[in-house]
Amino acid sequence: MSETHAHSAAYVRREMLPQEAPPALETGAVKWLRENLFSSWLNGILTVVSLAFIWLVLSSILPWVVQGIWNAESLSECREIRDQLYGEGHEVACWAVLGDRWRQLLFGFYPPEHYWRVVLALVVFLAAIAPVLFESLPRKMLILTPLAPFIIFFLLWGGTIWGPLAVLLGFVIGWAIFTYGSPVVGNLGGTVLAILVPILYWLFIAGPIASGLGAILPIGLEFVASDEFGGFMLSFVIGIAGIVLSLPIGIFLALGRQSDLFIINKFSVIFIEVIRGVPLIVWLFTASLLLNYFLPPGTNFDLMLRVIIMVTLFSSAYIAEVIRGGLAALPRGQYEGADSLGLDYWQSMRLIILPQALKISIPGIVSTFIGLFKDTTLVVFIGLLDPIGFSNAIRASTEWNGIYWELFIFIGLCFFVCCFGMSRYSQYLERKLRTDHR
Amino acid sequence: MSDLHTDTVDREIDRSQMKVSDEIAIEIVGMNKWYGTFHVLRDINLTVNRGERIVICGPSGSGKSTLIRCINALEEHQKGSITVDGTLLSNDLKNIDKIRSEVGMCFQHFNLFPHLTILENCTLAPIWVRKTPKREAEETAMYFLEKVKIPDQANKYPGQLSGGQQQRVAIARSLCMRPRIMLFDEPTSALDPEMIKEVLDTMIQLAEEGMTMLCVTHEMGFARQVANRVIFMADGQIVEQNEPEEFFTNPQSDRTKQFLSQILGH
Ligand SMILES: Nc1ncnc2c1ncn2[C@@H]1O[C@H](COP(=O)(O)OP(=O)(O)OP(=O)(O)O)[C@@H](O)[C@H]1O
Ligand SMILES: [Mg+2]
């Protein structure tokens, strides 16, 4: 016993204890192992079994991956090299197929001398989306964003530059009517005119203008038809167009479903339920086979465009339901708070309700997007050559007949990188927007 | 529940500005409201002059909230008329938005916007509804935040503030629209006692500056000190109204007597 008076109730410490290092068991790796992997007997056994399992899987897959052969012209050549190197019966991957066919997997039948257009389109897309995704980037970059769809369209399909410009002019007309016309004819009239006039313009005036100007001033890129699109480029074009278009449509459908206006409400409900209730593959077949019957004869509507429309509508129905959940999760007080300040419907939606509802819905929205992106592989069934389609085509060739895993692993990896990126971004966004301090 | 005799502020209340003018701020004539088949408000007649401070009390479910929510059209009424600041409440959305921008309202649960900072909460409506330049709106917001004594919290989010602070922000947010009438629906009933005092202080200050106020509250100390009229509601009707002194010391109807004896714990 030290100087403390153990026998009496009163206690005074005379000597302060110096700081000591914690016992070795409790620090660093040993502590972590103890707490996380071997905290009990059962846990310890599970850890050992899991490790054994992981080792088993990796030890059979890793050599196959790492020892894979990169330089060969065909599967049979691959096998010869393998037999020389590792002896017969030792399976290794034949990555040479990727080196031989990566162009098709990425670009489809797009003319190789124009690959730069696709790459440039991707760069434009990334530059346009970056300021939307990351607020810290300079706001001036946003100027590119509304123009990007036209630039990308022009780069990918080519043709005369006057086509996209004539279409763009329609939006400018609509915007001008809305800003300068609304004060004159009122808000509702302005909105109706701002929608109606551009549509009439696109239907009857834009075409002649574009071809007229194209005849006088033939500026443009070589035209590439949609049939030549394929591989990941096709998946990207369909997936990105679907994602970008389905979010706004989904928002309007969700608001429509909440609306008190009978027609709008019923239209939204029926649209959502019908689109959601039928498998995507059926809609894709509809797009490829039936849509031509409904369109006026003579209009040969691009198949890819039809697919984009279907995919967009399909995912917008899901987005609408996800956002409706977010809207329903907001307390009524938020609507009342906005109303009591005199904000009108669109202001309160835009400034108060949607920012919060969308924030709640981020995980659902992103998983719908991921689903949409992966579902673009379904277009293989209507004859479009997406990566899966190409893997079939490659396998059908004499050189690569019999190759499976290498192609699927590559395709899977590419999809995984994109989807994982979206998922990480959604987590980043959720963290950034967390202001409620619950 | 505070007692009739506890004062909410210790200082002398300045009644010099609390003048009631002859001008009519709110006029409700023969107003009725139903929720489905349930008759919530029955034949309400009420005239509020500019500068009046009115306290509305009554048992739970008597329709107090519904009444003041009808005044800024958060609820629709089916019969009778409501005129606010000379504008007749009709189904015209323009009228409704105009009235709402003239009438401030504070709720029991504050209803601040959690995704915006305190400052943004206060500048939002001036910027979008009144089209005030951002700079000016921020100056106004800081002026009113100072008035409710929380200028240093301007860049925080509502979730980081105490209940009392949030309610004072809600008051400041309404004031930023420079309303001519303020409605309060039980602004203190979700708060702890010390916080009740700071919110009531703010409300008293408003009254001293001559704001027209309609408060649903059970703070009888506040009613006695500030109100110039107390309205007692039961079963969707106005049962009794009187000056506070008279109302508390000499209630006329049995319902009022019963209510007062419950609330004051006699
Ligand atoms: N949206 C609604 N639909 C149907 N009935 C309602 C609705 N809101 C309120 N009521 C009913 O109307 C009556 C009056 O409600 P109100 O909220 O005005 O009461 P109150 O006097 O404010 O009560 P409290 O003191 O509890 O807040 C209550 O009986 C309530 O049940
Ligand atoms: Mg109430």
Taking all residues together, what is the mean pLDDT of chain A? 87
Poorly predicted segments of chain A: none
The largest β sheet of chain A comes out as: 2 strands, antiparallel
Using DSSP, what is the number of strands of chain B?
A: 10
Q: Count helical runs of chain A.
A: 16
Largest interface by Cβ-Cβ < 8 Å: A-B, 23 and 29 residues
CATH level-four homologous superfamily name of the largest domain in chain A: MetI-like
Distance between the termini of chain A: 50 Å
* E-strand count of chain A: 2
The parts of chain B where pLDDT drops under 50 for at least 5 residues are 1-5
Main sheet: strand order of chain B = 6-7-8-3-9-10
Strand content of chain B: 15-25%
Second-tier CATH architecture of the largest domain in chain A: Orthogonal Bundle
Q: How many domains make up the 3D coordinates of chain A?
A: 3
CATH third-tier fold name of the largest domain in chain A: MetI-like fold
The helix content of chain B is 25-40%
Helix content of chain A: over 70%
Classification by helices and strands of chain A: mainly alpha
Shape of chain A: flat
Architecture overview:
The complex is a heterodimer of chains A (438) and B (266). With 438 residues, chain A is mainly alpha-helical. Chain A has helices spanning 28-36, 41-66, 75-86, 96-107, 115-133, 144-157, 162-185, 187-216, 231-258, 262-277, 280-294, 303-329, 332-340, 345-375, 387-396, 405-432, and strands spanning 159-160, 220-221. The longest helix of chain A has 31 residues, at 345-375. The relative contact order of chain A is 0.08. Helix content of chain A is 71%, strand content 1%. In chain A, helix 9 runs antiparallel to helix 14, helix 9 packs antiparallel against helix 15 and helix 14 (345-375) runs antiparallel to helix 16 (405-432). Chain B has 266 residues and is α/β, with parallel strands linked by helices. Chain B has helices at residues 64-71, 93-102, 118-128, 134-147, 163-175, 193-208, 220-226, 244-249, 254-264, and strands at residues 24-35, 38-49, 53-57, 79-84, 87-88, 103-106, 181-185, 212-216, 229-234, 237-242. In chain B, the strands form two sheets. Chain B has a six-stranded mixed sheet with strand order 6-7-8-3-9-10, sandwiched between helices. In chain B, a hairpin with a 2-residue loop joins strand 9 and strand 10 (237-242). The longest helix of chain B has 16 residues, at 193-208. Chain B is globular, with a radius of gyration of 18 Å. The model of chain B is unreliable at 1-5 (pLDDT under 50). Adenosine-5'-triphosphate binds at residues 35, 38, 40, 58, 60-66 of chain B. Magnesium ion binds next to helix 1 of chain B.
